[in-house]
């Protein structure tokens, strides 16, 4: 597996750990629908939280959350709709981004951005 894939997996594992420590129940990881993938599907306070994990080894060019394009949002929303239908869930849904970046000491820092985008942003 390539080094960037290892880093991405580590970032997703850290994101799951972060969410669990903050009271989220993990419902699914790497949920796939057609060509779309949702990194993490969680639940807290009866809200389904669709989480996109964005990790970068540096923020020199672009912040991780800036890499979530309209096309990516559209595919995430499509996969989220499929998940809700498949598991017969009628909960309110929120779309979050968890950004993972190393600090000066190479420690990975998580920034949680709740309500980072809406399904309407996919249009």
UniProtKB/TrEMBL annotation:
Alphabetized GO MF terms: endonuclease activity; nucleic acid binding
Homology family: Belongs to the UPF0102 family.
Lineage top rank: taxon: Bacteria
Protein name: UPF0102 protein HNP38_002235
Keyword Hydrolase attached: yes
Matches recorded under Pfam families: UPF0102
Lineage start: Bacteria, Pseudomonadati, Bacteroidota, Flavobacteriia, Flavobacteriales
Key word Kinase present: no
Organism: Chryseobacterium defluvii
Alphabetized UniProt keyword annotations: Endonuclease, Hydrolase, Nuclease
UniProt xrefs under InterPro entries: Restrct_endonuc-II-like, tRNA_endonuc-like_dom_sf, UPF0102_YraN-like
Listed NCBIfam families: PRK12497.1-3, PRK12497.3-3
Gene3D superfamilies tied to this protein: 3.40.1350.10
PANTHER family listed in its UniProt record: UPF0102 PROTEIN YRAN
């Amino acid at each position: 597996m390539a080094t960037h894939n290892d880093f991405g997996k580590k970032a997703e594992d850290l994101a799951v750990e972060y969410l669990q420590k903050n009271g989220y129940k993990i419902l699914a990881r790497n949920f796939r629908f057609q060509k779309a993938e949702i990194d993490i599907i969680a639940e807290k306070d009866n809200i389904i939280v669709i989480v996109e994990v964005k990790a970068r080894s540096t923020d020199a060019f672009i912040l991780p959350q800036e890499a979530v394009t309209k096309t990516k949002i559209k595919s995430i929303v499509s996969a989220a709709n499929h998940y809700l239908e498949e598991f017969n869930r009628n909960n309110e849904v929120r779309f979050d981004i968890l950004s993972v970046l190393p600090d000066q000491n190479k420690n990975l820092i998580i920034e949680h951005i709740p309500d980072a985008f809406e399904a309407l942003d996919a249009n």
